[in-house]
Amino acid sequence: MSAEAPRHVAIDLGASGGRVACGAVTEGVLDFEIVHRFPNRPVRLGRHLYWDVLRLWQEIRDGLRKIARGGAVASLGVTTWGVDYALLDADRVPLGMVHCYRDERTAGAYDLIAPRLPREAIYAATGIQFLPINTLPQLVAARRDAPRLFDHAAHLLMLPDLLNFWLTGRIVAEHTNASTTQLYDPVRRGWAEALIAAAGFDPAMFPELVEPGTVLGPLLPEIAADTGLQGAVVVAPATHDTASAVAAIPAADDLPWSYVSSGTWCLTGIEVTAPVLTAAAREANVTNEQGVRGTTRLLRNTSGLFLLQESMRGWGDPPIEALLAAAEKVATDTVIDAEDPLFLQPGMDMPARIARWCAAHGRRAPDSEAATTRVILNSLGEAIARTLRMVDRVADRRSRTVHVVGGGSRMALLNQAIADAVGLEVVAGPVEATTSGNLLLQAEALGVIHAGDARAVMRRSAALARYAPRAEA
């Protein structure tokens, strides 16, 4: 990394872990180092699941201190998963804890607002896939459980917006994460105020929206002093982790391409110039989320490596390399429905749930850790293929290649399963796509690279692997 190149810091929180990285673009190539990694798992308290946000905040500050020892930093940016939020009162003090999207409280939440907001109206206003994890059913459930809470709520902040507030003192929302809420209008590119009011919430709770790449301002003096990062500014990249990952996909425009952001969730879709809000899109339950420069990410959330992560917890966290090597030797034609609600909740009994699903559906249950791993990866490949065909059909186009990014892109067995199921070449990499996109969007915001050059930089920077579909698959 050149000493002269401005250094940028990426703070990336995922649903299973976080990282703080430092990088720079030198002679058109991105180079970065992950300086600090830390786990992230929801915490159960009573009947509910919460995120330990204050511990994450401490981990972030620890990472920033490490980076400050290496010299000056020009900027930093935050990405997180979508849908989860914090409420603040008029004095900007948090109200309660941050629920995890996997909390069971949202069961039946859509039914509570159906008389005044039928599904057709919600989809027409937001274009978002109906999932119990969405912010809209979370808010409905929160009001049902604690109706007086909203008498005191003055600000709703998505997780990256909360962290940006703690870093800068500025309350804003960034488009890409806001668009995951099912409370955002993708056509007007603003909060869906009529829907918010019809759902019984105050539109004034929802902050000013800013574009990806907006410079939010300098670090608060106390944060700069605590971390040692004097002179750094905070940039809102695409603060939704998948949006930053898609911004870093090393695709060229000569072939229609699709993507799989492969992590705890698999988000499978395409990039389009405008939202698709047709009846076919609603029936297919596809989602319209914002991308960079006004693009739309037309996609579906499907279950991802969460099934394997929870299974490995139940097995005592064996080494992943040995597990994948053993799984590659397993021959099985068992495929489960990875999107079945049976697999939504965390728990070390995931292998038992998989066996139970197989018994209920007349499938041969896997009889070892390796076989369970192979079944999970094959099933994810099939789920991704179904989703891709559905999204292409809704958009009236045909993908010619599939880019797989994120942690799952390092799993050859999963990449091959996707190639075989989809029948298209899979291009795997970069692994740290969210971090790459975060850093590159900061570099664009500061004029280090030209706006729109992120993908060209990634084509020069990323180590890519290619997987052709096997004829016998």
UniProtKB/TrEMBL annotation:
GO molecular function, one term: rhamnulokinase activity
Top-level taxon in the UniProt lineage: Bacteria
Gene Ontology annotations of biological process type: rhamnose catabolic process
Pfam families in UniProt: FGGY_C, FGGY_N
Name the UniProt record assigns to this protein: Rhamnulokinase
Listed EC numbers: 2.7.1.5
Keyword annotations of the record: ATP-binding, Kinase, Nucleotide-binding, Rhamnose metabolism, Transferase
Family, per entry: Belongs to the FGGY kinase family.
PANTHER family in alphabetical order: SUGAR KINASE (PTHR43095), XYLULOSE KINASE (PTHR43095:SF5)
